[in-house]
Specification:
Helix content is 28%, strand content 24%. The protein contains twelve helices and twelve strands. Strands 1-2-3-4-5-6-7-8-9-10-11-12 form a twelve-stranded mixed β-sheet.
């Protein structure tokens, strides 16, 4: 950021993406941005306060990522900040450590003012605490207000009590392209996968599923329901905690169009020979950590991977 401060205004205005990071919280706040940046589309900030986001200087930002919000009041005022970014298409709130009820309330208040928002990601530091139904209802209110939603990532482990409320809201978005779900009380079994299929559109292209329970109750046959329902699924990511052995080959058996599969943090490309899926070698760790669109050729893949890895 220090080098950015010394750029002339004309050069700043040609920047299309910017990351702002702060490890110290002082009183300078918005002094780092003194000119309207009309070319800026992507803004990422880490460790800053909401007052450090100069929304009136960022008239055309379409992608906003906020990580590790500073100060105890955290996301207070987020709704007002977002309401100034009417052209926003993608919002990511990462490393959420504060009261989820307040965060979801702020997001819900802004949703009616963000008609173009198509991607929402919520990533928590602690994902296993049990949320009261009223908190999940707040998030569902926010999701219902987002009529253009195409991608949803929420990594909180949903309990058996809260899962129906959430999935019934997700089911109202019939044009979803990418979806990530974590369940707390259910094994990765046929009944769970059938339930998920009933609430997601058949033309979904990217799906990520994780269970906090150990094992895959139905063994290798469980995933057949997915491939029968999702006709265009090109990327499937699955995490199963321990239990009976289910291989990645079991997961993709019956897949028709899958091109990339993730299984317990290993990612492999898939090709098809004589109508059968064939696995290529697992990607090196460094390739996963440095993934970009050019590696995938698919923006939805990259969007999901970015939130899975970071």
């Amino acid at each position: 950021m220090s080098s950015f401060l010394h750029l002339p205004d004309a050069m700043r205005n040609r920047i299309s993406g910017l990351s702002s990071t702060s490890d110290t919280y002082d009183n300078r706040e918005m002094s780092w941005c003194t000119t309207t940046m009309t070319s800026l589309r992507l803004f990422r900030c880490c460790g800053r306060k909401l007052s450090d986001i100069p929304v009136f200087r960022l008239p055309n930002v379409t992608h906003l990522e906020i990580k590790s919000m500073a100060t105890y009041d955290g996301y207070a005022g987020l709704g007002a900040t977002l309401s100034e970014l009417r052209q926003l298409r993608s919002l990511s709130l990462m490393c959420i450590t504060l009261d989820q009820t307040n965060v979801f309330s702020e997001v819900a208040s802004a949703m009616p003012l963000l008609p173009n928002l198509s991607a929402l990601a919520l990533q928590h530091v602690v994902t296993t605490q049990r949320l009261p139904p009223s908190t999940v209802a707040l998030l569902c209110e926010a999701l219902r207000g987002c009529v253009s939603l195409r991608r949803v990532y929420w990594d909180h482990a949903l309990s058996r009590v809260n899962l129906p409320t959430y999935m019934e809201t997700i089911a109202t978005h019939r044009d979803l392209e990418a979806f990530h779900l974590v369940v707390r009380d259910e094994r990765m079994c046929g009944s769970l996968l059938r339930y998920i299929c009933r609430h997601l559109p058949p033309r979904l292209s990217v799906l990520s599923l994780s269970s906090m329970k150990k094992g895959c109750y139905d063994g290798p046959s469980a995933f057949g329901f997915l491939w029968a329902h999702f006709t265009d699924l090109s990327f499937l990511n699955v995490r199963i905690r321990g239990g009976p052995a289910v291989t990645v080959r079991d997961v993709i058996r019956g897949a028709r169009r899958v091109q990339l599969v993730g299984y317990d943090w290993q990612f492999r490309e898939v090709i098809h020979r004589d109508g059968e899926p064939v696995l290529l070698p697992a990607w090196p760790t460094r390739m996963v950590e440095l993934c970009e669109i050019k590696d995938f050729g698919c923006e939805s893949w990259n969007w999901l991977m970015r939130h899975l890895v970071l």
